[in-house]
Amino acid sequence: MPDRVVVTGLGPVTSLGEGVGPFWEGLRAGRTGVRRVDDLIDLEGIDVLIGAPLVGFDPARYLDAKKARRMDRSAQLAVAAARLAVEDAGLDLMKLDRDRAGVVAGTGIGGMETFAENFDVLRDRGPRRVSPFFVPRMMPNALAGEISIAFGFRGANFGVVSACASAAHAIGVGAGLIRSGAADCVLAGGAEAVLIRITFAGFARIGAVSTRNDEPERASRPFDRDRDGFVLGEGAGFLLLESERHAQARGSSIYADLAGFGMSADATHITAPAEDGSGMRRAMELAIAGAGVTPSEIDYINAHGTSTPLNDPAESLAIRSALGDAARQVRVSSTKSQIGHLLGAAGGVEAIATLLSMQDGYIPATLNYETPDPACDLDYTPEPVSTPIRVALSNSFGFGGQNAALLFVRDG
Description:
The protein is an alpha/beta fold. It contains 13 helices and 15 strands. Helix 3 (73-89) packs across helix 6, helix 7 packs across helix 13 (346-360) and helix 10 (278-291) crosses helix 11.
């Protein structure tokens, strides 16, 4: 019988703070990391002036300063989050069989900042001035590679790119490596750093982001009738996954069992979700079935909840379809209302929020949920709730119609 996969370490790096303590304190307090960013980024001529940036992030706290300068910001965030997860787990690297320690790192875009900077150099100063570090900094798999180098993990190592489902896919695939016997532990999650002019322009052109520039803290409003798009954020979230035997052998504390994982494709449109939520539903159903639980046992869903006109009704319908009558009893919330949408990192950070909710028995509110939308008719937790949580889902859905759902079970 395959060993259970458990979560023993959490590493969030977000606009609310770095590490479990600051991140969870920010969520519990109802703080938001969303602000005007036109003082940080040249957004002239672009309708969107808000985002959820990291303020005061210093990569030198997590890795050698010289090494950090040779890495894209996305990889810096990834290594920082991975280090926080290792420290949170109390993992002794000197006692670890690093041939059986793996890394699966997700990102939606990769080294976009590096790409944009070097394109400008090529255009303005010529090809001989392009950085020799351009390719290794830009490539999406650099995140996984840099983490493995930082910790000497020599097991399975690769990158996952599936838009906003990337980190959740990475976590699910990482768990599969452990269940198959290919690894004892895996650092899995994602990172994204795309708060630059070209990215804002691109998302603005497709109408995906909020233009509530005069009220940044009220801009991200998942499931609310007056939502007008998501808010771009940056950050990273990594989990340390272990086989239960490996975690018990070293006396580790355990957050929860990663009991189920589901993934699916809409196969309908490159950016819009299937209107009937069918792909999202299948991902949740697979996660539920894989965990061997019933819909009525699910206490909480950390929703993808982007605050976009199309995603929120589709996800609401998918939850109703997947859970049936139990959908009316389950609590649903969206962390994006506080930290924005971290794209390829979203699934990692939101899995962390889910696990901390389970540990603390506390669901932070979905901020800015004020006016119900008839198409979104579930309990979206407009006020924070203290309640025991034994079984929870974390949903992540991405452009390309790529869907992922993680199901966690907490003993006791």
